[in-house]
Specification:
The complex is a heterodimer. Chain A is α/β, with parallel strands linked by helices. Helices cover 39% and strands 22% of the residues of chain A. Chain A has 13 helices and 13 strands. Chain B starts with a strand and ends in a 7-residue tail after the last helix. Classes of the chains: A alpha/beta, B alpha/beta.
Chain lengths: 347, 404
């Protein structure tokens, strides 16, 4: 299986079979020989679609000519989320028509959010039904749910799943069903990210437009030129924050911490408290101090932290068994998780 | 000194006349116009309580100028002259960080603030114009809701935009309902015998028009749900509250509307009205739900409750816990069903509402509504923005200004 996922302006890929895995990245405009050489050997090509809108409501979707229009709509309507992967999937569909193609959709998990969390307080007769909250990073949250299910043998009644990445988000699950999430119509709503704006007063958006900026310019500002990097005046990644490279008194760090704490509080409120809090990170040892500091801020909830975390294979327990809120950290194995999802769907 | 205070909400107008002598405030007259310019199944009316007469005038109240004229007529009919007039201005932008005497120069600055709060500031401005016409020579001054939030920490007031845009256009979180918060925070601290410098307080100002939530810690505002304008935050009567940053851009690109159209949709056609499709008044929604369970009314109500709960949870965690939860303004004080719905399921934060006390609250008084074992004291407290405006005016006219 060959899986593709866009990150900013490049496509990361990994080839996986029973014997090996090979990974790399490619500029959509100039596919590398190495990558193209891989493709003919493999019957399955899978792509991660950041935003399926109302067109893709399953986590794994067979992609063929019949779904192309849906896919193109997703790229056209939300270019900042989808454009690169849509163009790439189209390229692959055109060039490898005999292969099986699958679209993995990041928003599908949140398709049936409860109404009170799904809608904006807008007159939907005017704005249309497409305007709703779709969530984000559903594939990561699904992997988190699967992990907890494997660990506990059941879905906890109330789970807060925290995806700590360059564009972080949080989702609340009641018996495994999503009831709230920080990302909304797009993944740019909610927690401030490294380049994305997060929550902002819509009056500012309208003010910028009235001052003469085009919608494309404002999209560009909100999705690429804002966030913590813009405030700091230099490129910042989540690992910089997790490694403590911003001093505890740094206003930029404080803004991120406040944004994260508020999102955690809102997630807890949506669930009426939680039984399990699960952090997903790329690298546990790098993230653990930051998460430990966040846990100190949550001590008032009665969390009973372990002095030394219980370290498992890519999975650490941070609390005593009798803690009212169990806190875990898992290290994502993204490509394997995506492969598993596709295989499960096919079987 | 007799001070007339006008307090324009988006759909209401409160007024009071105080006689201030040696820091003692005697209320001489008061009143409120309800449902000003509102689409509602219930009638608009003006209530007036004067030294000589109490009145309830049911009539059409199309706008705030009309109401201001009616109020001045009432005061004239009772021979109640005034020495100064104070006005509430919701948004002072970057022009005003404290109250000011109305001068031609300040009036021009106020004009520049009108678009910052499009369903509030113009109402106040028009009332100012009525007063200048009807009460020539009487000093007028203006107080600002945004002043209370001037001490927000940088991480709370900063939008993560490119610095060049922040510098050029002055974008920051200003916060609103500051006069109300100034009153209830200080009164709650007195009432609960709390140290204002250490208490962690969440105040929910839930009005018939606008609503917001405040987080207050270490003697200062630490966050609030409204922002650069009163648009973001809670689901309000006609305002949408929080929105995805890309959503307005998507609507502009795909609906063929202008930013001005969207401003009207977001501020005047959304919120409870937009979702329910028939009323901007939470009480109408509750009546309709009880009457026939109309699904859009249920959805609008549940969205409003859900959003308030999320903000309380967010601010509770931000402050590392909570000592006092205050409900104020019309809906906050008088709507026990909403309070019950909001507090239900917030036990994890130490919030334990006494359901009986909540239902049997005494209107227009302070009520303690938490159970004895509740970690968080829950109180309802009628706000008194007019008192804050009057007291600010008293200081201002003596050449001082209040420091929130």
């Amino acid at each position: 299986m060959l899986i593709f996922e866009a990150k900013e302006q490049i496509i990361n890929w990994e080839y996986r079979d029973d014997q090996k895995s090979v990974s790399g990245s490619v500029l959509p405009a100039s596919p590398s020989r190495e990558l193209l050489a891989c493709i003919p050997e493999n019957p399955i090509l899978a792509y991660v679609l950041p935003h399926g809108m109302d067109r893709f409501t399953a986590a794994v979707n067979r992609l063929d000519a019949n779904r192309l229009r849906d896919l193109e709509d997703c790229g056209k309507l939300l270019p900042e989320e989808n454009q690169i992967v849509v163009e790439w999937a189209r390229f692959c569909l055109d060039n490898f028509p005999k292969h099986e193609h699958y679209m993995l959709c990041e928003t599908a998990l949140f398709h049936d959010l409860p109404s009170s969390a799904r809608f904006y307080a807008l007159p939907h007769t005017t704005t249309g039904n497409i305007i709703r909250r779709y969530g984000s990073d559903g594939l990561c949250h699904q992997a988190a749910l699967d992990h907890i299910l494997g660990l506990m043998g059941r879905q906890p009644a109330r789970l807060v799943s925290i995806h700590l990445s360059d564009r972080p988000n949080i989702a609340s699950f009641y018996h495994g069903h999503p009831v709230e999430t920080t990302a909304g119509f797009t993944s740019f709503e909610g927690i401030v990210s490294m380049h994305g704006i997060g929550d902002i007063d819509a009056t500012i958006t309208l003010d910028l437009l009235k001052k003469g900026l085009a919608t494309a310019e404002v999209r560009d500002i909100f999705t690429k030129k804002s966030g913590l990097s813009a405030l700091k005046g230099q490129e910042i990644h989540i690992t910089d924050l997790l490694r403590g490279q911003l001093a505890p008194t740094d206003p930029v760090r404080n803004l991120f911490v406040a944004s994260l704490l508020k999102a955690i509080g809102a997630a807890l409120a949506a669930l009426n408290g939680a039984e399990v809090m699960l952090w997903t990170v790329e690298n546990i040892p790098i993230a653990i101090d930051f998460i430990g500091n966040m846990m100190k801020r949550l001590q008032f909830l009665g969390i009973q932290s372990l002095t030394v975390p219980l370290k498992g294979d890519h999975f650490w327990e941070l609390t005593h068994k009798n803690s009212p809120l169990q806190v875990y950290v898992r290290q994502s194995n993204r490509w394997q998780e995506l492969e598993t999802l596709v295989k499960k769907s096919i079987s | 000194m007799k001070v007339l205070v006008f307090n324009c909400g988006s759909s209401s107008l409160n007024y009071k006349v105080f006689d201030i002598a040696k820091e003692r405030y005697q209320l001489l007259a008061s009143g409120k116009a309800h449902r000003v310019g509102v689409t509602s199944t219930q009638a608009a009316f003006l209530e007036h309580h004067g030294p000589k007469q109490n009145k309830k005038i049911e009539t059409q109240l199309p706008n705030h100028q009309v109401v201001a004229q009616m109020v001045l007529d009432q005061l004239e009919s009772e021979s109640l002259g005034v020495d100064a007039v104070g006005h509430r201005f919701v948004h002072g932008g970057n022009y005003f960080r404290q109250s000011v005497i109305l001068t031609p120069e300040n009036k021009e600055k106020l004009k520049a603030c009108l678009p910052l709060a499009p369903i509030h500031n113009p109402n106040s401005f028009r009332v100012i114009q009525v007063c200048m016409q009807r009460l020539p020579g009487i000093p007028e001054y203006v107080t600002f809701d945004t002043a209370f939030h001037a001490t927000l920490p940088p991480h709370a007031y900063t939008y993560p935009l490119p610095q060049e845009l922040i510098d050029r256009f002055g974008y920051r979180k200003f916060g609103f309902h500051g006069l109300s918060y100034a009153y209830v925070i200080s009164r709650a601290a007195e009432l609960m015998e709390l140290s204002i410098s250490s208490a962690r307080i969440i105040a929910c100002h839930l009005g018939t028009g606008g609503s917001s939530v405040l987080a207050y810690q270490n003697g200062a505002a630490v966050d609030t749900s409204m922002g650069f304008s009163p648009l973001p935050g809670l689901v309000m009567s006609t305002r949408t509250g929080d929105l995805d940053p890309i959503l307005p851009l998507f609507l502009l690109d795909n609906l063929g509307c202008t930013p001005e159209d969207l401003e009207i949709i977001f501020n005047k056609k959304s919120g409870l009205l937009g979702v329910s499709g028939f009323s901007s008044d939470l009480r109408d929604l509750q009546d309709r739900i009880a009457q026939d369970g109309y699904p859009p009314a249920i959805l609008a109500y549940e969205m409003a409750v859900h959003r308030i709960k999320k903000y309380i949870g967010a601010y509770g965690v931000l402050m590392g816990g909570l000592d006092v939860l205050i409900f104020t303004d019309d809906i906050g004080v008088h709507n026990w069903k909403l309070r019950e719905a909001v507090c239900n399921g917030l036990q994890w934060l130490g919030i334990d509402l006494d359901l009986t006390a909540n239902q049997n609250y005494t209107p227009n008084q302070n009520n303690l509504l938490s159970t004895p074992s509740s970690k968080v004291k829950i109180i309802t407290m009628p706000t008194d923005e007019e008192w804050v405006i009057a007291s600010e005016g008293n200081l201002l006219l003596q050449g001082q200004h209040a420091d929130f």
